[in-house]
Amino acid sequence: MANPIEQFEIKSLVDINLGGMDASLTNSGAFMVLTVVSITMFLVMGMRRRALVPGRWQSMAELSYEFVAGLLRDNVGSEGRKYFPFVFSLFMFILFANLLGLLPYSFTFTSHIIVTFVLAMTVFVMITVVAIARHGWKFLGYFVPSDVPAAVLPIMIPIEIISYISRPVSLSVRLFANMMAGHTMMKVFAGFIVPLGVAGILPFGVDVLMIGFEFLVAFLQAYVFTVLTCLYLNDAIHLH
């Protein structure tokens, strides 16, 4: 039976050495490039005609735009408009990465904690910079809950700080764990199909169902990551 973890192994495709530093193109890097190219093609093809009555491609592109714009509007308000390019890029990148990872013989780089952690840290740093730029030293008031007795503050303030700095960890682990777990389970069931012979129809049926479920998970994880980013952005802007 094939090792279900083998699908997550990073392999070098093109060896590149820059002044003693390994800058090789790996399967993970290649699929990141493919993800960006796929998003660009999707949006360019969808909006090239700009028809008054949109076709299927244009409808999907406009739906993606409106979906993310709605998330920002509902969770941040009108002040969140200026951050739309960042949030939209983040949502599309994670969504397409998850969906491309479901193709046969593909690679799901969102199943690697280092990738999801970098995405989460990018959000964390951006949110913190926005909060400090807008509020200056008042930003520290975020860690002092309102209507809390002074005697409890020595306990509450450290809790608020830990909760704040743990955001990139929770964001990254949630995405990484869900993607890795789903792909591992599909590989495990796929490994039983051939050895079981005729009875292999059972694990095959489970795998088909899981693929449908993984498509849902791919969208939900992109959605959850984006919603939490919007909520954190709302906190940074309004210091809630």
What structural class should be given to the helix and strand makeup?
mainly alpha
| Coarse morphology | globular
**What strand order characterises the main sheet?**
1-4
Largest sheet, described in full?
2 strands, antiparallel
Helicity range: 55-70%
Give the low-confidence spans: none
In percent, how much strand structure appears in the residues? under 5%
Please, how many domains?
1
- Average residue-wise pLDDT: 88
Summed up, what is this model?
This protein has helices at 27-47, 56-75, 84-100, 113-135, 153-165, 167-193, 201-238; strands spanning 12-14, 17-18, 21-22, 25-26.
Outline the structure in words:
- Helix 2 (56-75) crosses helix 7.
- The strands form 2 sheets. A two-stranded antiparallel sheet has the order 1-4.
- The chain has helices at 27-47, 56-75, 84-100, 113-135, 153-165, 167-193, 201-238; strands spanning 12-14, 17-18, 21-22, 25-26.
- The mean pLDDT is 88.
- The termini are far apart.
- The relative contact order is 0.13.
- A hairpin with a 2-residue loop joins strand 2 and strand 3.
- It is mainly α and 240 residues long.
- It is globular, with a radius of gyration of 22 Å.
- 66% of the residues lie in helices and 4% in strands.
- It has 7 helices and 4 strands.
- It has one domain (6-10, 17-238).
What does the secondary structure layout of this molecule look like, with pairings?
Elements: E1 12-14, E2 17-18, E3 21-22, E4 25-26, H1 27-47, H2 56-75, H3 84-100, H4 113-135, H5 153-165, H6 167-193, H7 201-238
Antiparallel strand pairs: 1-4, 2-3
Helix pairs in contact: 1-2, 1-3, 2-3, 2-7, 3-7, 4-6, 4-7, 6-7
